[in-house]
Automatic annotation (TrEMBL):
UniProt KW keywords: Flavoprotein, FMN, Monooxygenase, Oxidoreductase
GO molecular function annotations of the record: alkanesulfonate monooxygenase activity
Record protein name field: Alkanesulfonate monooxygenase
Lineage: Bacteria, Pseudomonadati, Pseudomonadota, Alphaproteobacteria, Acetobacterales
Residue ranges of domain Luciferase-like in the record: 42-389
The keyword Oxidoreductase belongs to this UniProt entry's keyword annotation: yes
Length: 443
């Protein structure tokens, strides 16, 4: 008896900004990104993604401008490269009111907010969404954010993850231990039993806290924990804490060893390597025929802002690409920013040398991930091959034109994947954790 094909999971990747991963595409005549400041765009997107049975929408965030390119933020301001950047959390309750199943993965940096406040924000959202919230745990990579929040610079890369371990000890204690499961009575004896609510005391080198959690236990109690680091320190952190991991890179040959390394780290941490869902960044351009899809991609590329692409790349890597010739080869330079972002185009695939111009062109549509362009059958073939080559569970889909890129996926690609038995035909009931990890939760 043959084993049924493994489900391919889809998640939408977006940001509360004018330009997320495709710089310049806000100028495309069919793009609605200029409406990012108003709720109708996000409500329409939420409805669309739920119609397409997406697991969720993953909302990126940054707390400072991309000011590495050229030494200041002028190019970021000019290109709109993730600037302006509005608060992603405030979108979630509105999108939740027009959906029943769609999950919300929210990026929030632990570097600049005490665990006491972070715990309350996520518990509040988990209540308001009936348990559909996840936290993408990030430590930050922009010195501009650190300076804006009163520091001279961000912590060193590995020091950020050491601090993150202290932080997780504190915030998990608030979520898990402050309120007993039966603390809330809501009867003649009172709303909650004081003997079933305790103060959490945390003392570590960089954190001090003495507090009871301000929220009663939410439907999930702890939001689904996402992590996106691919460095050694990031993967070690993910192996201890993450339930879902996002990876990014330009090809399967870059992604496959990272996924294998993560699974090894999970095993070493005493966890089931298959228990963590791994999604890779990608962009899908889907049309009725391959020729139409290629024409769409050419049209999109004509709107790319190359300077905006280098602004993003400089911010991700901590390397000022304004001072490097467009035809020069990209070489690895260590920094305290995102190490895997630099490795994507240098060390990760020694067989491929990238010029600055080539990297800017690649990043211009969908960021660091691959672009799958073609008919629904062609894109489904490419996705299946990528999953088989890398061992990932699905894709974190960026967009070229909003919401057109997601409409293409929902209307054309999803039915093709369903026909192949590779995509769900209905949502599982329950919280976001139960939907994503139902085998582990319900077994």
């Amino acid at each position: 008896m043959s084993t049924p094909p493994r489900e391919i999971r889809l998640n939408a990747f977006a940001m509360h900004t004018i330009t997320h991963q495709s710089p310049g595409l806000w100028r495309h005549p069919r793009d609605r990104s200029r409406e990012f400041k108003r709720l109708p765009l996000w409500l329409d997107l939420a409805r669309l993604l739920e119609r397409g049975l997406f697991d969720g929408i993953f909302l990126a965030d940054v707390l400072g401008p991309y000011d590495v390119f050229g030494g200041d933020a002028r190019a970021a301001i000019r290109s709109g490269a993730q600037l302006p950047a509005h608060d992603p959390m405030l979108l979630v309750p509105a999108m939740a009111t027009v959906t029943q199943h769609l999950g919300f993965g929210i990026t929030a940096s632990l570097s600049y907010e005490p665990p006491y406040l972070m715990a309350r924000r996520f518990s509040t959202l988990d209540h308001l969404t009936d348990g559909r919230v996840g936290w993408n745990i990030v430590t930050g990579y922009l010195d501009s954010a650190a300076r804006a929040l009163g520091l001279d610079a961000q912590r060193a890369h590995d020091d950020r993850y050491a601090y993150a371990e202290e932080y997780m000890d504190a915030i998990l204690a608030l979520w898990r231990d402050s309120w007993a499961p039966d603390a809330v009575r809501a009867d003649a004896q009172g709303y909650a039993d004081p003997d079933r609510v305790q103060v959490i005391t945390h003392r570590s080198p960089n954190l001090r806290m003495q507090a009871l959690h301000l929220c009663e236990p939410s439907p999930q109690r702890i939001p689904v924990l996402y992590q996106a680091g691919s460095s050694s320190a990031g993967q070690a952190f993910a192996a201890r804490h993450a339930e879902c991991v996002f990876v990014s890179g330009p090809s399967a040959s870059v992604i496959a060893p990272r996924v294998a390394k993560l699974r090894t780290a999970l095993r070493a941490a005493g966890r089931d390597p298959a228990a963590v869902k791994v999604s890779a960044l990608a962009t899908a351009i889907v049309a009725d025929t391959d020729a139409e899809a290629r024409a769409l991609l050419d049209d999109y590329r004509a709107h790319v802002d190359p300077e905006g692409a280098l602004v993003l790349l400089s911010g991700w890597t901590g390397v000022d690409f304004a001072g490097i010739g467009l035809d020069d080869e990209v070489r690895f330079i260590a920094s305290e920013a995102g190490r895997s972002a630099m490795e994507n185009f240098t060390r990760a695939d020694p067989s491929r040398a990238w010029s600055v111009r080539e990297v800017a062109a690649h990043v211009g549509i969908g960021g660091a991930g691959p672009v799958f362009a073609g008919s629904a059958a062609t894109v489904a073939d490419a996705m299946e091959a990528f999953v088989d080559a890398t061992g990932i569970d699905g894709f974190n889909l960026a967009y070229a034109v909003l919401p057109e890129s997601f409409e293409q996926v929902v209307d054309l690609l999803v039915p093709e994947l369903q026909a192949r038995g590779r995509y769900k035909t209905a949502y599982t009931e329950g919280t976001l954790r139960e939907k994503l990890l139902r085998e582990e939760v319900l077994s």
